[in-house]
Structures are given as C-alpha cells and as structure tokens.
Specification:
Length: 422
C-alpha cells in the first residue's frame, strides 16, 4: 500500500457489512471509499487463548486486580470498589477481547469488502478498556503485553487483511481526572527506575503540586491567568517539582515502548508492508493521555487524529479541570477557573464557554448514555475552531513523513455539527 494515498475509510462491524449489501459499493462510488476498518469479532484460537493473562475463564476478581492499574492513592484504577464495576471485564477472555465471536461472519464480511475492491483493516483495543469507569490494564505487566502480541499477530496473519488499527492504546481519557494518577504499581515503579525515575519521588512531587495549587494566592493566580498563563509561567508561579513532568513523560514512553514492540512483532509475522497503528488523542491534551505526537512514527505506521468525542475529550476536560480548581480554591469564580483550564490546554485563544452551564452538560458527568444536550458541542462551544486547532497541532507535531488519517467519527455519537456546518 502506498501510504501517500488518500485514504477514505469507515469503521464498521461485520454484521453492518453483511446486513447492508451494496453499502460499501455505494460509498466507494459516491465518496471514493477505499478502506473498511472492521471491528474484530472473530474467534480466538486456543494457542492465543493460552496467552491470556486472565488464567481462568471467567477471570477471578483477584487476578483482575493484579492486572489492572493502581492509582497513586494505592486504590484500584477505578477507586473505591463498587458492585458491577468489573462486569464488562469478567465477560472477556483476555484484556479487550469478548468471549463470543464468529469467524465465519468476520471472514464473510472481509470477502464482501474485497469484492468491493476496498482494503481491509481490523480494529482491536489496547490497555484502556473502560474510560467511564476508569478501567485500565497496567502497561508494565509483561503477561498483558504478551497477550496483545499473540492477539495482534493472530489478527494480522490469519484473516488476510492489510492492516491493524489499535484503539485505546493510551491512558484514560483526560475528562476522568482519576486516570491521570495511573499507574503507580510495583511493576510501573520498576519501569520508572529503568527510565531513571523514582516512583516514590514522582508521587511525592504530584502530591506536592496539588498542595501548591491549594495554597496558591487565588488573586495572584487569577491575575497571572488574566495575562497569558503558559506552562512556563505555571512552573514558576507554583514552583512545581520535576516529578510532575517526569510522570507524564514516563507514561508516554511506556506506551511508546509497548506499541513499538507490538509493531515489531506484527511486522515480523505479517511483513513490513502490513500497516499497524493507532488513533491519536486530541493534540492539545494528548501528552496527558500517553500520546506524544512527535514520537508517533517510532511505534505507529500512521496517526489517526480523533476529531470525534469533542464533548467527552476536550469539553468535559475543561469543565472537570475548572471544577477541580474551584474545589481547591473556593475564592476563584467559575469563569476564572474555566479560563485557567482553557489556558493550560491551549484553548485560550478560542471563544470558549465561560460558565459550566454553557458547556451544555446540565451539571452532570458525561456517560455513554448522557452526552450532554443535543447541541452542546456547538451552541456555545467554538466547535470548528477547536477542531481546526487540534488538527493543525497534530499535523505540526507529527513527524512530517507520517501519514495522518483524521477520524471524523469513531464510535459514540456523531459530532454534532450545527445545521449550517453539515
Ligand atoms: Zn502499573
């Protein structure tokens, strides 16, 4: 495949393809569709199942707790144990793979796509498995890495497809603040040491940063933000210690190391022309989710900047950061707190909502079922400017020769463009 080609692709399930004969041909003829990315829904052979880190099926809760991330507060990734939170995982045979599947159906869908003359990639998942409940498998666990290697190699070699697209090869989405505190387990402490960092010192520096925010003079903080607060200003003003930056750098490096070893394994078994890569968290926030755009070419054959999830990724993050700051600095008003959040993320030049109500979430956290009011992404939010900014950043930060395939919609609800923008 010539990676310089313009790629027009669509994410579909095997059932979508089989139940809608002629759909791919219609998209091909009318829009130039040349790629279909099929969510993997096949069967897992015994040789791969044997590599599952779960050990038993269904997996025991004890084993899940060993494999999931540990927060810097020493609780499991999702916080205080609560009923049902692990249910989605116990239905799986290994991280990110459900028990049921049909090879016959998947292979039939691949054949339909081939007949339509479009390339086929399979879609599989990585360490983050449930953003809403903050469920993430520890990226330093060797058994989980072995599982993904065995799984991805199987997907790359057994179905005759052209590529493998890995989603959720990142930390928890930034709108769930708890995800920023993962992973502080003993395995990740060893990884940190290999990178020259001390886990205990990094955690102490993260805690120190929260104390410094709480103790900062609110009038001065608002005044600094009123000018043009940048990361350098914040480093000086708060006096953050080095472990804060080391923590987020380590998380990026860990993800990159894992993905590079998985890409090597896939290329070894499926050949160097086989395409392996992952989607890309919005550039303004990506370093906090484990994605450093500059180094994407070291582990991915392409980048797919996610333009979808504007509600969940950038918008809710601004609200959550604003609320977090107000909880620690009660004297800071809502509009100032939101302005500081937007400055930190680099959205300060945009005409962002200045009240939480104007974000259109009704004061509730977003969930798979509640994604805000229908027009929340554009009624007060500068949707087009926000997308343009993150697209421009992605292109500027990604290596020049790395193909970039922006994703206008990837799961969830469609980004809700204003009627005039459709
Ligand atoms: Zn860990």
């Amino acid at each position: 495949m010539d990676m310089a080609d313009k790629v027009i692709g669509i994410y579909l399930g095997a059932k979508d393809v089989l139940r809608n004969p002629g759909y791919l041909e219609a998209l091909r003829d009318r829009l130039g569709l040349n790629l279909v990315i099929l969510g993997f829904s096949g069967e897992i052979p015994g040789t791969v199942r044997a590599q599952s880190p779960f050990g038993t099926h269904p997996v025991s809760e004890e084993r899940l707790h060993e494999l999931l991330c540990r927060h810097v507060d020493e609780l499991p990734s999702y916080g205080t144990p609560r009923p049902g939170v692990l249910d989605t995982q116990t239905l799986c045979i290994g991280p990110n793979v459900a028990e049921q599947g049909s090879d016959a159906e998947l292979r039939a869908a691949i054949a339909v796509a081939r007949k339509a003359g479009v390339r086929v990639w399979l879609l599989s998942g990585g360490w983050t498995v449930d953003d809403f409940n903050v469920l993430m498998y520890c990226p330093s666990e060797g058994a989980t890495l072995n599982w993904f290697e065995s799984l991805y190699t199987h997907l790359a070699t057994d179905y005759g497809v052209d590529g493998l697209d890995i989603t959720h090869a990142r930390y928890i989405m930034t709108s769930r603040s708890r995800g920023l505190g993962l992973c502080a387990c003993a395995r990740c402490a060893r990884t940190a040491a290999q990178h020259g960092h001390d886990m205990g010192q990094m955690i102490a520096d993260l805690r120190d940063a929260v104390v410094r925010v709480r103790r900062a003079n609110p009038k001065h903080l608002v005044e600094v933000a009123g000018h043009s607060l940048g990361p350098m200003d914040l480093l000086q003003f708060l006096g953050l210690r080095p472990g804060v930056l080391q923590w987020f750098e380590l998380r990026c490096r860990l993800m990159e190391h894992n993905m590079a070893s998985l890409r090597d394994a896939v290329h070894r078994s499926a050949g160097p022309a086989f395409v392996f890569g992952t989607d890309t968290y919005p550039a303004s926030l990506s370093v906090l989710a484990g994605h450093n755009h500059r180094r994407f070419g070291e582990f991915s054959d392409f980048a797919s900047p996610l333009l979808s999830h504007v509600d969940l990724f950038p918008m809710e993050t601004m609200v959550v950061w604003g609320q977090w700051l107000m909880a620690r600095q009660p004297e800071i008003c809502e509009s100032d707190a939101l302005r500081i959040a937007c400055r930190l993320a680099g959205y300060d030049a945009l005409d962002m909502p200045d009240t939480i109500a104007d974000f259109g979430f009704g004061g509730r956290p977003l969930t798979p079922d509640w994604r805000g009011e229908d027009d929340c992404e554009w009624r007060h939010n500068p949707l087009r400017a926000m997308l343009r900014l993150d697209m421009a950043k992605a292109r500027l930060y990604l290596p020049d020769d790395l193909p970039s395939y922006p994703i206008s919609q990837g799961g969830g609800r469609a980004t809700r463009l204003a009627p005039r923008d459709r």
